[in-house]
Amino acid sequence: MKLLLRLVISALAVLIGANLIPGVAVESFTTAIIVAIVLGILNTFLKPVLQILALPITILTLGLFYFVVNVFIIYLASFLVDGFYVSNFLSALFFGLVVSVVSAILGMFLD
Fold this sequence. Notes:
Elements: H1 2-20, E1 24-26, H2 29-53, H3 55-60, H4 65-80, E2 84-86, H5 89-110
Antiparallel strand pairs: 1-2
């Protein structure tokens, strides 16, 4: 039950991010749920591998390259999910920030 609530919270965060950030579009709530699932899978399996591979440049940039890894994950999700579009780097960057903040705020009510 808690997993389904987290999924709905993530989907709401995706919808809020798409409505706040110009250059990001989500066609429907069903698409937002699919985006939340795909982002969760990519963040679980692919992101740790990318972080390890990018560790030298992340250290060199004092951690700022971590944002580039997040943007890459969002671009990959937009490539994999029909109905989810991201137009440019800054849109993906701000979308990732908004989704993480909104998910954290809504998730506080769940705990």
